[in-house]
Amino acid sequence: METSKPSPIPLCEPNLNGREKQYMAEAVDSNWLSGGSFLRRFEQQLTDYTGAAHAIGVSNGTSALQVALTLAGVEKGDLVLVPDLTFVATANAVKYLGADPVMIDIDAATWLLDLDLMLDFLENHTYQNHGGCFHRENHRRIKAIVPVHLLGNVCEMGRLLAIAKQFALTVVEDAACSLGSFKGGKHSGTFGLLGTMSFNSNKIITTAGGGAILTNDDILAKRARHLITQAKSHATEYIHDSLGFNFRLVNPLAAMGCAQMEQLPAFVQVKKNAAAFYEQQLAQCNVTFQQLTPGTDSNYWHSAMLTDNSRGLLTALTTEQIETRPLWTPIHELPVFREDLYVSRTNASSTISRRGIMLPCSTSISAGQLQRVCHAIRKHLN
């Protein structure tokens, strides 16, 4: 007699059980597609939730970073400090502007930018001239820092901002993972001059593809809206005063976002419950979880852990219809970035990447699915 396979458990699938279809149909029926009332509503929901003065909807999280770095004054030939362990989009956005990333290794406990290492680099390998910070070896300007709030854990922004001020660096937060994460009551992405978000299909809320730029600066917000609409400067004539982008978030996808935002508090709670369940159920296993920075209220966008032979465990779970993924490959190991500067003492990013595994944590995950994942992990680790 043939044994039936267990049903698959997805890694992190979208949850479209709200008013998504209703709102998207309304957007289509309105005949306002490029812009419209749902886009304005979605942006207002984001500002209300995050506390940012402005939220500008864009086509995806990568375009949000590209525009934010442009607004921050990053130019061709500049250097930008980024964490070495992050999704490649963080470093790609720097390259799009003709600048280059300086990869800073991560803290082995929090998996975030190692601020001690970054400060040591700035103190011992740079000089300041005419209000700017320059790399001593090649005399290139270091213009900005892009902290990434990895998996929902928020960087030590108070200290980071102080370092940035000392060295005249602009802070652009990559908050792609951290909608719903707060530090000291302040939302991620609202500490620096600009913050960026992603609403890709695996994020805590989704617009299928989409992102946003957050800022408290009225002038930068106006400039961002101008740039993402091809920098068109005349109401009827095709006059474009800058090199612009076609990066607007369209109205039907913003409508999906409106429905998703209505469910965000519930989504965050599911993520928190899943993370707590994994930590409790796997406490006796030889695994390690990400350590939150003090004062962080994480959205736990993605549950992840470290273990020896993570690739073997990934393969074993696949045979049981449980989808998992490794953590990202460190930026300095990718071919495009191997000629760029990597600052490290212990190469923690490679160790974390090699030992890391992302666990199922959809906002629709059931208690039974969580139990099945933990049972399978305990079985294979033991």
TrEMBL record:
InterPro entries: DegT/StrS_aminotransferase, LegC-like, PyrdxlP-dep_Trfase, PyrdxlP-dep_Trfase_major, PyrdxlP-dep_Trfase_small
Keywords per UniProt: Aminotransferase, Pyridoxal phosphate, Transferase
CDD domains according to UniProt: AHBA_syn
Coiled-coil region list: none
GO molecular function, one term: transaminase activity
KW Manganese (keyword) present: no
Signal sequence residues: none
Family that this chain belongs to: Belongs to the DegT/DnrJ/EryC1 family.
Name recorded for this polypeptide: Aminotransferase DegT
Organism, scientific name: Dyadobacter beijingensis
High-level lineage: Bacteria, Pseudomonadati, Bacteroidota, Cytophagia, Cytophagales
